[in-house]
Design a protein that fits this description.
The relative contact order is 0.17. It contains three helices and seven strands, in the order αββββαβαββ. The protein is 37% helix and 17% strand.
Amino acid sequence: MPARRRPRAAFNADINVTSLVDVAFVLLIIFMITAPMMQGGVPVQLPRAEIRPLAPEKGVVVSVDKSGRIYVDQAAFSYRDFRITFRALVARRKPSAIYLRADRAVPYGDVVRVLAVIRASGVKNIGLVAESDSVP
């Protein structure tokens, strides 16, 4: 008796998109959770004041930490380097606003020196950032 051959199954040439969509959704969820954490910037303890919220604009954030180091967004500068390069940075980026964040432990004179460099760069819209003073 001759051996029977099984019929071969036809090849399936379709792409299984279900697992691809699952991976894409997992990555989307991961990015949605981690994105707000990455916007923290330089850790400074802002002074407290009664303030009203500003309308968010696209701008450059200048931070001064406790040790007196100056940060433009995430890049660190000494005062000398900041004074030399900030005008060129403003000319290149053309920000609509500059937001100055300074730690409450920074001496007032250091904040004024940084503010003077910002004003000398020709920026008209400068915001001083503070924490909201919630009075119970």
